[in-house]
Design a protein that fits this description.
transport; 10 helices; single chain; 2 domains; MetI-like fold; mainly alpha; about 325 residues; globular; transmembrane helix
Length: about 325
């Protein structure tokens, strides 16, 4: 009897320290969760406050534009007539870049993820990622010294053969420094964003989905259309919107390539400018009312970027129910 009691006491004595250690570990884990949660919340608040501070600063510094007489604003017809061509130029360059980079980026990502052998896919992926590391000023220098002269004969051909289309009306630029050239340079700059993000999403497609599609007799192309693209739809939209944000805000490459001037609807004529390039070229010497004009133009770009991001979030929220990524 005494032996049994002794055994039970020993067992209880052995359990108490283990239970105490478990409670201590649980308490430590809860404390770590609280700390991490607090840090995450703090980081989110900092980002929100930073965004709010930028918006307040731009609004405050741009407010003098309201009081500037219309004939004293650059262009002599008021601020809206000054910023309107810049907004259109910004959107034109970004749209051209997206129209070129989106299909190319998605196709390259599909090739790397589903078609190329490993010994080819990895080097191609490294080269695409390397494009993102090249400074924008290098792209601009390449665009003005190599790409622009190379495209000038092609622009002449477009003007002679497709000049009846407003976008290709002549006379074409002799230097090749046009909105089309700027869009092509931007498309190369945003290509790594679309390709890298799309590739990472494509490789995450559940293998069971792909194998089920192939087992039902689908070709590889049909499998990609039925299994891969629906799964990656929201991710592709996110990649495109992120690339659009880069294209809207790009400065040096566009400033070097474009031959600034008034608004031109033709993509092969000299002229046009973007908000970012306008600010970069004129900000160092600006003061007074001119400085307020440039900051107000920057505020317009800030608003455009916010609108683009809101639209992107709305598109993602609408289609995420039909995406395999959930």
């Amino acid at each position: 009897m005494s032996t049994n009691l002794s055994d039970q006491e020993q067992k209880q004595a052995g359990e108490k320290p283990a239970s105490a250690l478990a409670d201590a570990a649980s308490a430590g884990g809860r404390a770590g969760d609280k700390i991490f949660s607090g840090l995450s919340l703090g980081a989110g608040i900092v980002i929100f406050l930073t965004l709010a501070a930028v918006a307040i600063f731009l609004t405050w510094q741009a407010s003098p534009v309201i009081e500037i007489p219309a004939d004293e604003v650059s262009g002599g017809n008021g601020f809206l007539s000054y910023v309107y061509p810049l907004i259109l130029g910004t959107l034109m360059a970004a749209i051209i870049a997206l129209l070129i980079a989106t299909p190319v980026g998605i196709l390259v990502a599909l090739y790397i993820s589903h078609y190329a052998p490993a010994k080819v896919a990895k080097p191609v992926g490294y080269v695409i990622d390397l494009l993102a590391a090249i400074p924008s000023v290098v792209y601009g220098a390449w665009g003005i010294t190599v790409l622009s002269p190379a495209l000038a004969p092609f622009y002449n051909w477009l003007a002679n053969n497709l000049g009846f289309i407003p976008l290709f009306q002549g006379p074409a630029s002799a230097t090749g420094r046009t909105m089309m050239t700027a869009g092509i340079v931007l498309s190369i700059m945003i290509l790594p964003i679309i390709t890298s993000m799309s590739r990472e999403i494509f490789v995450q497609t559940p293998k069971l989905h792909e194998e089920a599609s192939l087992a039902l007799g689908a070709t590889r192309l049909e499998m990609i259309r039925q299994a891969v693209l629906p799964f990656a739809r929201t991710g592709i939209v996110s990649a495109i919107m992120l690339a659009l944000g880069r294209a809207l805000g790009e400065t040096m490459a566009v400033a070097l390539v474009l031959s600034t001037g008034g608004l031109q609807w033709s993509l092969i004529r000299s002229g046009n400018n973007t908000i970012a390039a306008e600010i970069a070229l004129n900000y160092p010497e600006a003061f007074g009312d001119r400085l307020a004009e440039l900051i107000a133009a920057g505020l317009m770009l800030f608003v455009i970027t916010l609108i683009v991001n809101f639209i992107a979030r709305a598109i993602i929220a609408r289609y995420k129910e039909f995406s395999g990524a959930n």
